């Protein structure tokens, strides 16, 4: 067996491990992206604990096929960046935020598809995924709602107590 074939097998195993260890995997076409833009984008992913990598499409396809997933075969072509994410939404959200902050990136980095909860998401699914707030934001909103209800309840109880106090005087 050639050394090149062994190296490719190791990369496929590495990709499989990263897929299995990620909550979501996002693929994007990064055509015409400059080195500075790619570095800035990579740093944004790194700060969100995501990993931005460029692999050969055939190796990524083989890794997915070995995991029993063949939905990505048609999307893994051309220049493809792969982002492995520790949560469900951060990868898609970072792509969307980068394009929103720098409109010149709209033609340079285009999300292709994603892998979420062992399911294939097309381009539209990635856009929808990017629109979902992060888990921390959702928890904060929920706690705000709960706190608001409790505050209103305490206000009502206080009003009743003050009304009784006023009626007794």
Can you describe this structure?
The protein has helices at residues 3-20, 35-47, 57-66, 90-101, 123-131, 135-168; strands spanning 24-29, 51-53, 80-85, 110-116, 119-121. The model has no long low-confidence stretch (mean pLDDT 87). It has 169 residues and is of the alpha+beta class. The longest helix is centred in the C-terminal third of the chain and has 34 residues, at 135-168. Strands 2-3-1-4-5 form a 5-stranded antiparallel beta sheet. The radius of gyration is 23 Å and the shape is elongated.
Observed structural traits:
single chain; about 170 residues; alpha+beta; five-stranded antiparallel beta sheet; 6 helices; elongated
TL;DR?
This protein has 169 residues and is of the alpha+beta class.
Give the SSE layout:
Elements: H1 3-20, E1 24-29, H2 35-47, E2 51-53, H3 57-66, E3 80-85, H4 90-101, E4 110-116, E5 119-121, H5 123-131, H6 135-168
Antiparallel strand pairs: 1-3, 1-4, 2-3, 4-5
- Report strand %: 5-15%
| Envelope shape | elongated
- Outline the low-pLDDT stretches: none
Largest sheet: spatial strand order: 2-3-1-4-5
- The number of helices is 6
N-to-C order of helices and strands: HEHEHEHEEHH
Q: How many E strands?
A: 5
Based on secondary structure, the structural category is alpha+beta
N-to-C terminal Cα separation, in Å? 97 Å
Can you give the mean pLDDT?
87
State the helicity in percent bands: 55-70%
Radius of gyration from the CA trace? 23 Å
Please outline the major beta sheet.
5 strands, antiparallel
